[in-house]
Amino acid sequence: MTALDLHQDVSLLTAALIDINSVSDAETPIADAVEAALRELDGFEITRDGDSIVARTTAGHGERVILAGHLDTVPLPTTEGSRGTVPSSWDGAPGEGVLHGRGAVDMKGGVAVQLALAAAIGRGELTPARDVTFVFYDHEEVEATKSGLGRLVRNHPALLEGEFAILLEPTNGVVEGGCNGTSRFEVTTHGVAAHSARAWMGENAIHAVAPVLARLAAYQPKTVSVDGLDYRESLNAVLINGGTAGNVIPDRCVVEINYRFAPDKTPDDAERHVRELMDGFEVVRTDAASGARPGLTHPAAASFVAAVGGEPKPKYGWTDVARFSELGVPAVNFGPGDALLAHKDDERVDADAVRACLAALTAWLSPIA
Amino acid sequence: MTALDLHQDVSLLTAALIDINSVSDAETPIADAVEAALRELDGFEITRDGDSIVARTTAGHGERVILAGHLDTVPLPTTEGSRGTVPSSWDGAPGEGVLHGRGAVDMKGGVAVQLALAAAIGRGELTPARDVTFVFYDHEEVEATKSGLGRLVRNHPALLEGEFAILLEPTNGVVEGGCNGTSRFEVTTHGVAAHSARAWMGENAIHAVAPVLARLAAYQPKTVSVDGLDYRESLNAVLINGGTAGNVIPDRCVVEINYRFAPDKTPDDAERHVRELMDGFEVVRTDAASGARPGLTHPAAASFVAAVGGEPKPKYGWTDVARFSELGVPAVNFGPGDALLAHKDDERVDADAVRACLAALTAWLSPIA
Description:
Two copies of one chain form a homodimer.
Chain A: H1 10-18, H2 28-39, E1 45-49, E2 52-56, E3 64-70, E4 89-90, E5 98-100, H3 104-123, E6 131-137, H4 148-155, E7 164-167, E8 176-177, E9 181-190, H5 210-218, E10 223-226, E11 229-232, E12 234-242, E13 252-261, H6 267-277, E14 282-289, H7 299-308, E15 313-314, H8 321-326, E16 331-333, E17 348-350, H9 351-365
Parallel strand pairs in A: 3-6, 3-7, 7-16, 8-15
Antiparallel strand pairs in A: 1-2, 2-6, 4-5, 5-17, 8-16, 9-13, 9-14, 10-11, 12-13
Helix pairs in contact in A: 1-3, 1-9, 3-9, 7-9
EC number (chains A, B): 3.5.1.18
Organism (chains A, B): Arthrobacter horti
């Protein structure tokens, strides 16, 4: 098992985490390393569940905050010459400049910050004014049913209680509040099959889908202000499939639509909206996940925003803040690196960005002198 | 090997042919049976090429006509309780009423008529005023490159010379002249992939296809008169496919179009027409087969139409008359059974229809008394 040194520079710790391959479904080695390193620290109550680990201080403060991050990554890049690989590599000297490797932004930089904070608490250098729960979990990059965080909610709900949660997903070091919801619909047209040499005996289901696409092409997505943040929506055909053979008039065409809706709407609101837009067509909802309101008006969130500074932004992609939101725990995203590099072959993070994130969270957690 | 009795009632001979399974690529048993039976007859020069057989009279008449039919069928039905199977079955007594089985209309009824005519010539009951070439060929129901008739054209072009050809494809006993051409095109739209949570960073290739489908839906297919027959055209999207995943803005969408064009047009004319309709879009022609003009003005064709009676009709589907047309041999379809039942699970033919077809051809081939 790789031994992790939690006390080294947090950017070097990020590199050490990248060097443990942890593509979804194969998180055990990294979970073992993280658990072993945490057990070396004083002052934590540690729970392991599958490949998830929860480490909690129990100082008896009246308030508890949660810092959460996932251990898994998307698969390694297959492109020749890509630097988003395992092991990691540096543009210059280790610990300076840019660090490349799978998970650099999504989200081993964030996990390194969590571990460095825990190490500082363990060393007695940081004595937070609130109790802290660190959550490290598996299976974030795959279907929601496999989510390690979802499993923790089912198996150990008490471990996820708190007044406020921070997800260390990459946000370029600014606070991103809440997230859009996401829903999927299938719009299906039906026709009558016939040999294409006698097309007039059939009815073309692909031709029938023309107005569906025309409405989608003409659709102007809204931007919705929620708790002071502007959420930009989007509504798109993501897949289309119709027809059975090159000489048969198609009797069925299916358009899959993905609607990313602002957190002022429930999945049912979103469905109503899509049904109105697709009036006259057969619509089936196949998937939906609620968004999360930013919740920045909550005192714990407000104090966090004040402490780290900068202008909070909305999060467009769905993240696990929505799970905390469903538990009644206000949650924001705050982590090092550019989310647009996530899942990319040239995934990378700046060493200074990781250190800046650690400094901001250290300052916020420290009691006011 | 199954021995075929060519001298029995032609509907019973049809049943015997159905009972020899001959799905494309497995025509050897039926070709062996047909060849052996033909070799029993007097008066024919016989050539075997793969699973195709050519049997020619060589009486030295100034004129030669060709009667052609394919030996293969589409696969057997898999539907429970279907009667379009091997062996065949009768609604009533054998030789009366309706005969069920794969190939009943497409086209073992027609092949039985060819063989019965050859048998009558062999027995000396029929002494045609013109020389006759019977062609039995493999691989008609599959891709054109496998066609046994195409192979005969390459290997034995002299065997396919003649003044007029009749293809015994099912036409309900009326003369169907010529055939529409067929061509296929791919219309492709391109976009820019992006995560669907940040759709504004991408460009949706499925939305971009909306005008393609709108133009197809609004298109009014023409009916074109060629040599006195009306050919009804059709132009349809037959397949559509776009998108890569439920959370990605699609960067590519492909619509496959099938244009069935009247025989007044070449494949290049057809392509020009589709390119004009799809102006502004990327169009690639992926396949094309010329149609065939009906050629009913040719004396041999005219005498045939006069002999069998009825009003000639256009053929909409592409058939091998187009191959004869390319060889400069005017050709028509004339055979027993309803083409709309071809390839169907309930494929069937009326015994009387097979006998009527045989009677019509016997009358036409017989010298005027």
